[in-house]
Amino acid sequence: MNERFVAFDKFFIPDKQFPESVEPLPDIVFIITILLLFFFTGCSTSSSHNTASPALTWTACLEAELAGLECATLTVPKDYNNARRGTFSLALVRAKATGAPSERIGTVFFNPGGPGESGVSVVPQIVPALPAELRARFDFVSWDPRGVGRSSGLRNCTGGSYTLPPTGAVEWDSVTARMRSSEKAANESCAQMYPDIVPYISTNATVRDLEMLREAVGDNLLTYWGTSYGTRIGFVYAYHYPDRVRAMLLSSPVSPNATFPEFMYGSAMSPDDAVGFYFQAFPSAEILFDRIVESLSTQPLQLPSGSEVTQWDVRGTIANNVKSESLYQGTLSLLETFDTAINGSGTSQSEAKAMLDSMNWLTTYPVNGGATAFIGSLDYAQRLTGGEQNTLAAQIRADAPVFGFGASQGLFYTEGISVTPDPIPTKFTNTKTPVLIIGSTNDGLTKYSWAVELRQNFLNSRLITYVGTQHTPYLAAGSACVDTYGTDFLVNLNRPEGDATCPNARR
């Protein structure tokens, strides 16, 4: 990539971490994800479709990045209520079970979140981290949901953008106006390019696709692992098909009940919640951060190439990094490098500046668009006026001083989108579906309170609380406690008698 940051969920994600660090499992968020997560009140029902799912034909994947895996496609209706509107071809990838046929239980379906994140592309990174017991007994399958990636994706769609002054006062109403107008133009352009795709990519439709996928692999009951936005796919599936689930693991869930403003406010608080937890664990990091931001707020850091680092770059990088606990020590080292580049002297200062210069720094920041914006706009019917957006953005900036300025961008996703919403159910009660929920107390992307809400919606569920900031902690936090609970449930259907807590694995 040529840019320092890419739009991912609602946040700035560095395309190059410093220093190098290895995740127990790549940050599924992210990969996962954003998540525009919108909900509409409804009642629990069970629905079905009349479309028979053909058996899948698996062949060796042709893409180099998918070497050693098997690929297939499944044809699904664009509109389950009107077959004449055409079809989508869903792209799937499979890591076949490693055990003997007699050991095989079935298929684990996985979705990494987003919305808009490719489920196919992440599989090569995830499979090596899967527990041997799970690999032996299950085929591991993921797919690109409709409108995403290889599945009739909105490939040429981008979001809007905005700029921030390097120093001095910020005219925030002008910034939000730029977010709003640029996102509107981007969404209108996307709708013009893909008029036969954007009306049909709601989560409700994806859930119908998942039911066809379950039938196509021949499983009587669904085994599902969803992270971040992928938990929305999971709980909406359980709403529509409460009796068709063998096991559902939902990691870092999104709210099943929030209104659009409630969701956007909660998600915008999450990065600062994670930063607060990190600073408690590493007090020296908070001292460095405060000193760096104070300096950069009056004068950006000039690098040898002529580029510069601003306080906004530092805020965005820290907010992103702390949601991945494997980056804790690396983040402290990065803050030390910033500090040396600003306040040091001689060779050490020159080396620090050169290190930072090896990373590219944007002057224009992205607003997420494409599938993220359209899926969210379909899933939720509410639209905010410009005045309501500005008011909520100001509240977010005040209550989340580290990264609220960037987290508020999600308020503008619906601009320029005129598709008819297909709102998902909310505020339902499910007594049947067996669910294991895993949430982090200071998750850097999704609120822990949403995990508690989901626990209350699903009466046949258990909540595993991880004390930390890790987004999607199962197989990512480095917690044997979390991983044991998750794997034992997926493989053996075992859950604790009551809710349980796992301590932080990093501090």
Radius of gyration: 22 Å
- Globular, elongated, flat, extended or rod-shaped: what is the shape? globular
What is the distance, rounded to the nearest whole angstrom, between the alpha carbons of the first and last residues?
Answer: 32 Å
Low-confidence stretches: 1-50
Largest sheet: 10 strands, mixed
Give the neighbour order of strands across the main sheet: 4-5-6-8-7-10-11-16-17-18
Number of strands: 18
Beta-strand portion reads: 15-25%
- Number of alpha- plus pi-helical segments: 15
The overall pLDDT average reads: 90
- Quaternary organisation of the protein chains: single chain
Helix content: 25-40%
Structural category is alpha/beta
3D architecture notes:
There is one protein chain. The chain is α/β, with parallel strands linked by helices. 36% of the residues lie in helices and 16% in strands. It has 15 helices and 18 strands. The chain has helices at residues 123-126, 132-137, 172-193, 203-217, 229-240, 260-281, 283-296, 311-321, 328-343, 346-357, 371-379, 386-399, 404-407, 448-457, 480-492; strands spanning 5-8, 11-14, 40-41, 59-60, 70-77, 87-95, 106-111, 138-143, 161-163, 222-227, 245-251, 301-302, 308-309, 364-366, 425-426, 435-440, 461-466, 500-502. Strands 4-5-6-8-7-10-11-16-17-18 form a ten-stranded mixed beta sheet, sandwiched between helices. The protein has a two-stranded antiparallel ribbon with strand order 1-2. Strands 3-15 form a two-stranded parallel ribbon. Helix 5 (229-240) links the parallel strand 10 (222-227) and strand 11 (245-251). Helix 3 crosses helix 12 (386-399), helix 4 packs across helix 5 (229-240) and helix 9 crosses helix 10. The chain is globular, with a radius of gyration of 22 Å. It starts with a strand and ends in a 5-residue tail after the last strand. Residues 1-50 have low confidence and may be disordered.
